[in-house]
Amino acid sequence: MTRRFAALAALAVVCAGVELVAGRGMSPGVVWDVVHGGGDATERHIFLQLRLPRLLVSLGAGACLAVAGLVLQSALRNPLAGPEVTGVTPGAVLGAVTATALGLAGWDSPLAVVIAACTGGCAGAALLWLLAGRGRGDPAQTAVHGVLVSAVLGGLTAMVLLVEPGELGSVVQWLVGTTEGRVWQHWHLLWPWALVWGTAAWLLAGPLTLLRCGDDIALAAGLSARPARTLALLCAVALTAGAVAAVGALGFVGLLVPHLAVAVFGADLRVSLPGAALVGAVVVCGADAAAQLSSRLLSQGLDSGRLTLPVGALTACLGAALLLVVVRRTPSRTF
C-alpha cells in the first residue's frame, strides 16, 4: 500500500511538472529559469501569479471531487452516485450563477460564490432525496432521478442566463469547468475548505464503511444510520461546492475516480479516502496539462492565438468514453 501511495505521489509530481510547462506564453526553458530564480518580471509574474496557483487549484479541486464522490457512493450504497448525478454539482452551479446574476457574488468575491454554491448543492441533493423516496437504495432509480434533477436544475440555470444574458461568460465557465485564470485568492479559499471537510470525511471512514454494508449491519454494529449518512452527505456537498466554486463543474471526476481509488487501495475507507484524494488530484492535474498542450497545438494548427480548451470538456469526454467501455465490457454487472 505504501508503494502505491508513493507511485501515485510520483505521478502527481510528474503531472504537476508537465502542467507548469504546458501553458502558452512561456517556453519550458523559461519556466526552468524562473524556477531557479531567473527570468524577467513578466515571466516571474506569469509563473508565480498564474501558473502556480492554477496548478494548486486543479490539485485541490480534483481531490475534493474524488473524496465527495467516494463519500456519496458509500453513504448511498450506490455505485452510480456522484456529484454529477445526485443534483449536487448542477445545484451548486445554479446557486453560484444565480448569486452572480443577482449581484451577490462574482469572481471578485469567491467567498460569496462558495456560500451560494454550497446552498445550491444542498438544495439539489435534498431535491433528489425527496424524489427518490423509497427507491433511494436502488442504483437504477437513483440514477434516473439524478438525471431528472440535473435536467431541471440545468433548465433553471438556462433561465437565469435568459434573464441576465450578460452573465454568459460566468455560466459557461461554471457549466463546463475550467482552471483558466485562477489566482492565489482561489487557492487561499479552497485549501482550508478542502482540509476541513476532507478531514471530516476521513473521520467518518468507519461509519461509512459500515454504511456500505447496509443499514441492518450498521445498526447491528451499534451505528445509527441516518445521522451518520446525514453527516456524510453534508461533507460531500461541502466538498463539491468548494470545488465547483473554484473551477466549475468538472464532469465524471467524482463519479469514476472513486471506483479507481477502491480498485487500487481496497474497500477500507481509512485508506481509500486519502487514496481517492490523491487519484483525483492526479486526474485533474493531468487533464489540465493535456488541455493546455492541446490548446497550444490547436492554436498553432488553426492559427488562432485565443483558442482555449477547458479542462472540464476533456474530463467529460474521457469520463463518458471510459464509462461506456466499462459498461460494455461488464454487461452483467449492476451499475
Automatic annotation (TrEMBL):
GO terms for molecular function: transmembrane transporter activity. InterPro entries: ABC_BtuC-like, ABC_transptr_permease_BtuC. It is found in: Cell membrane. Its main location: membrane. This is Iron complex transport system permease protein. It is a multi-pass membrane protein. Belongs to the binding-protein-dependent transport system permease family. FecCD subfamily. One of its GO terms (biological process) is siderophore-iron import into cell. The chain crosses the membrane at residues 55-73, 85-105, 111-131, 143-163, 190-211, 231-256, 307-327. PANTHER family: ABC TRANSPORTER PERMEASE PROTEIN MJ0876-RELATED, FERRIC ENTEROBACTIN TRANSPORT SYSTEM PERMEASE PROTEIN. Keywords: Cell membrane, Membrane, Transmembrane, Transmembrane helix, Transport. It comes from the Bacteria.
